[in-house]
Amino acid sequence: TSGFPAPVVNVLSKTPSDPGEPLPLVASHFAYNAKVGKVAVASARPPVISPPPLTDAIVLNFNAGSGVFNFNSFLENTAVQGTANQGIYDIEFSPSGKYIYYTVFDNTDPEFPSGLYRIDWNSIVSNTPVPVVNSGFTGSFGLQTGPDGKLYHLYRSGGQIRMASIDDPDAAQLADIGY
User: What is the b/e burial string over 116-151, where b = at least 16 CB atoms within 10 angstroms of the residue's CB?
Assistant: First the structure.
């Protein structure tokens, strides 16, 4: 009803140069950033399907004029094989689009416990996810950028659902983000 054409999703392939084989991905959440024209896609870890789905998050290009999506990049090392049905619960860009934040919902693996993680997705040097916070709570849920530019995070602690904010999600140093 808004007059915007329905998005066209190309068959997403494992690499941009190999359009032949579809990308085995089951998406749980996605976030769009207009400044960079990209969509970050969180992967789910569904019941058994064949071929096995990817569990790393991915970034898609989005052409706002045509409504067409196409593959940009994998966010390697974001994969989480936890005890929950979703590897990555939610995903969100920082306001500038430089960083991607994502949550891991209910994971007992000590290497990637439930938590909030950040990745400088466009950096060749520092594109490894780092934990923003991964202790003190038993579940990490939704992320949403507010109109004030803060990134809001829902989590569970002591049996209660709580909300925290990241005051400056674009700060270069984690110590400066204000969680």
Answer: bbbbbbbeeeebebeebbbeebebbbbbebeeeebb
Tell me how far apart the alpha carbons of residues 141 and 162 are, in angstroms, rounded to a whole number. 10
- pTM above threshold 0.90: no
| Nearest-angstrom CA–CA distance, 160 and 139 | 10
DSSP string, 63-110: ETTTTEEEEEEEETT-----SSS-S--EEEE-TTSS-EEEEE-S---T
Q: Do 53 and 45 contact (CB within 8 A), yes or no? A: yes
d(CA 60, CA 43): 13
> pLDDT by residue (tens digit) across 30-68?
899 999 999 999 876 554 555 555 667 889 898 888 888
